Amino acid sequence: MVADIALARGMTVAGFLDDRALEGQRVFDLPILGGPAWLEVCRSEVSVALGIGENRARCRIYKLCERLGVTLVTLIHPTATVAASAQLGAGVVVMAQAVINPDARVANGAIINSGAIVEHDCEIGAFAHLSPNATLGGNVRVGALTHLGLAASVLPGKAVGEETVVGAGAVVTSDVPSRVVVAGVPARIQRQREEP
Ligand SMILES: CC(C)(COP(=O)(O)OP(=O)(O)OC[C@H]1O[C@@H](n2cnc3c(N)ncnc32)[C@H](O)[C@@H]1OP(=O)(O)O)[C@@H](O)C(=O)NCCC(=O)NCCS
């Protein structure tokens, strides 16, 4: 999906990086170029877009790129709507039909997936992931590395902590702490989240 956005934006996509020694294979008719060792050698010739859904893994790869001095690309699908006053960090990906409204701030490496809505003045932490059709009312805060499942909603002004998971279809009606899994309508804590 991330490569598709880059192509739709008219960028040249050289291929994929993957640390599972899949060099030579092709995905989406593009080559897998190599892993971190390839990036270390070719770091001055390429920019990197983050195509990993899992938040902690995406954060790890972001930090590797940062350490190597590689430029992280921010990608916005042509059908997404991003307000002029919204701020997007490095390595953010905004997918098809997503909406990011005025004065919202989306920190580095976050994913705003297809059809997700980030209302005005929301604050999305680094490496958070809003799944397709997730909806945030105005002034919502979502902590770093938190994952909102498919079509999860957060009522205006509420805060969700860091590294938390909000289940698909949940409706968050009150603040949610860090490192828990919540689900249901209204969202209730199911369990603590295990350490990485
Ligand atoms: C909520 C969630 C994190 C729970 O995952 P889990 O801890 O592995 O839970 P399980 O699948 O073992 O399910 C445990 C129970 O919760 C229920 N459950 C699972 N997801 C639920 C949800 N979103 N809302 C309500 N109940 C849910 C299951 O039916 C099961 O109930 P049971 O014990 O009565 O059978 C997960 O189901 C979820 O919704 N993840 C988001 C996935 C997503 O949207 N991905 C998008 C990718 S782009």
TrEMBL record:
It comes from Cystobacter fuscus (strain ATCC 25194 / DSM 2262 / NBRC 100088 / M29). PANTHER family: ACETYLTRANSFERASE, UDP-N-ACETYLBACILLOSAMINE N-ACETYLTRANSFERASE. The active site is at 120 (proton acceptor). This is Acetyltransferase. Pfam families: PglD_N. Residues 1-63 form the PglD N-terminal domain. Substrate binds at residue 53. It comes from the Bacteria. InterPro entries: AcTrfase_PglD-like (IPR020019), PglD_N (IPR041561), Trans_hexapeptide_repeat (IPR050179), Trimer_LpxA-like_sf (IPR011004). GO terms for molecular function: transferase activity. The record marks 121 as: Increases basicity of active site His. CDD domains: LbH_AT_putative (cd03360). Acetyl-CoA binds at residue 129.
